[in-house]
Specification:
The chain is of the alpha+beta class. It is built from 4 helices and 4 strands. It comes from Kribbella sp. HUAS MG21.
Length: 148
């Protein structure tokens, strides 16, 4: 759901190209044992290790924070035996973790957006504007977290 994962497509394309080159080398050149070993290692690295590690490490910290806030807000609603999570639950959960909700007011835009209805803007640090994430509880206790 995080649109910023698209920034990795160029690097993923390059690693795929390198993996295909290693595979072509492995299929065509059978002369030296050392070259075969280097080619197999390159194929494993560029075809498996690098793409998997990019996917696993590409979740931004503001998305992690928003997921934690959504979990805390859901727990608060379940504790109060409610079937829906309120914006106030999200606000309390964000503030308890040191963050805030809504856009940061500036001189150019003093109006706070995303603090009174879903999707709620969640900031990991109280005094920091961007980056932020959006949290929405559209259907009861099921959270939707995305970059916004």
């Amino acid at each position: 759901m995080d649109g910023r994962l698209d920034r990795h497509w160029i690097l993923r394309g390059l690693t795929l190209l390198l993996a295909l080159c290693c595979a072509a080398l492995l299929l065509t050149d059978q002369t030296r044992r050392l070259r075969q070993i280097v080619t197999v290692v390159g194929l494993v690295m560029f075809g498996l290790v690098i793409p998997v590690s990019q996917t696993a490490w590409s979740k931004p910290p503001e998305i992690e924070f928003a997921l934690q806030v959504a979990t805390d807000a859901r727990a608060a609603a379940e504790k109060d035996v409610r079937s829906a999570v309120s914006v106030e639950d999200v606000k309390r959960a964000a503030e308890a973790r040191g963050g805030a909700i809504g856009s940061l007011p500036t001189e150019q835009n003093p109006q706070i957006r995303g603090a009174d209805k879903y999707p709620v803007i969640v900031r990991a640090k109280r005094d920091q504007g961007r980056p932020w994430a959006c949290v929405a509880f559209v259907h009861g206790l099921d959270a939707q977290v995305r970059a916004c």
